[in-house]
Amino acid sequence: MHETSIAASILETAQGLIREQGEGRLESVKVAVGELSAVEPDLLVFAWEALISGTSTPDAALEIEWSPAQTYCPTCNRNLDRARGSWLRLCSKCGDPVVTKGGDELDIVQISFIQEDSNQP
Question: Has this prediction a pTM greater than 0.85?
Answer without folding.
Answer: no
